[in-house]
Specification:
Blueprint: E1 13-21, H1 25-33, E2 39-46, H2 51-57, E3 63-72, H3 73-89, E4 95-101, H4 108-115
Antiparallel strand pairs: 1-3, 1-4, 2-3
Length: 119
């Protein structure tokens, strides 16, 4: 072990789940990537509200994109705050976002990739 090497506790990871209107899915995927996110998966989804409920709430449709992003715990607050701001300020950009703690990963290389930690 080199003198400069120190034992550092690994950074914890979380799964960031973001649900947005389908037309904004690509925008939010790119936006979330700016928080040092190396892995994301998105899928098409449909909301459960009836057409009548959508009409009463003034919403256009129920087509959604769900984005699953692995993010370091130290970046979560920044990402969630920035997402909240975007949800409030972008036209048709409403959505929800929350995190789920990840308790483990298998393999050092996978962990380094997911946490954006250099070798």
């Amino acid at each position: 072990m080199k003198e400069n090497d120190a034992l550092i506790a690994p950074r914890k990871l979380k799964l960031l789940v973001t649900v947005v209107n389908r037309e904004k899915g690509e925008f939010y995927t790119d936006f979330i990537q700016s928080f040092e996110v190396n892995f994301q998966a998105s899928m098409a989804a449909r909301g459960t509200a009836s057409r009548e409920t959508l009409r009463l709430l003034g919403l256009a449709d129920s087509d959604k994109t769900v984005i699953f992003s692995v993010i370091r715990e130290d970046m979560c607050d920044k990402a969630l705050s920035a997402l909240e701001h975007k949800f409030k300020t972008i036209k048709n950009g409403k959505g929800i976002a929350y995190t789920i703690p990840m308790t483990g990963t298998i393999g050092v290389a996978i962990y380094r990739f997911l946490s954006n930690t250099p070798a």
